[in-house]
Amino acid sequence: MNPLYHLDIQEGVHFRVKRGHWLPRRLGVDCVAFGRVLYLQRPDAPIPRHEFLHLVQFRTYGIPRVVCHYLFHAAQNYRQCRNLAKAFRDIPFEREARAFEEEDHRAAGGSEGCRNRPMESQADTCPRLDPAGAGHPAPAKHAKRPSEKV
């Protein structure tokens, strides 16, 4: 795995979860990762696996770079396709997160439960990602290692 992504994160140590939050509902989604927080619309909702990768992207690149990355690519994609949902899906970090979830899903034998398992239960089957690929910002110099607490 590329050393920029450290997928060994734990709730309460490296990130927090706010359940029953208004933000996802306002955005029309079930879950939103921002910084070190996962916002879930429903109190009992499982966390989609790709949201863990978004948390790691925030840890690796920092909030300003991730936000700029999303804004730049969303605007660029929207100019090309004039469809906001498609523009968002085509943001490199979103494509990478979906690929992470799909590869993890296949590695677990395609069972439905694998999409919502905690990260630590997947240590040996996490896909190997390359954050230095096209469309990725340079990592933040202040990026924190998993051992640092929230």
By secondary-structure content and strand pairing, the structural class works out as mainly alpha
| Physical arrangement of strands within the biggest beta sheet | 1-3-2
Ends apart, CA distance between termini: 24 Å
What portion of residues belong to β-strands? 5-15%
Shape: globular
Helical amount: 40-55%
Main pleated sheet: 3 strands, mixed
Low-confidence stretches: 113-134
- Would you report the number of β strands? 3
Structure commentary:
This protein has 150 residues and is mainly alpha-helical. The protein contains 5 helices and 3 strands; from the N terminus they run βαββαααα. Helices cover 40% and strands 7% of the residues.
Offer a concise description of the structure.
With 150 residues, this protein is mainly alpha-helical. It has 5 helices and 3 strands, in the order βαββαααα. A hairpin with a 2-residue loop joins strand 2 (31-34) and strand 3.
Task: Name the descriptors.
7% strand, three-stranded mixed β-sheet, mainly alpha, 3 strands, globular, 150 residues, 5 helices
How are the elements arranged and paired?
Blueprint: E1 16-18, H1 22-27, E2 31-34, E3 37-40, H2 49-61, H3 63-81, H4 84-89, H5 92-107
Parallel strand pairs: 1-3
Antiparallel strand pairs: 2-3
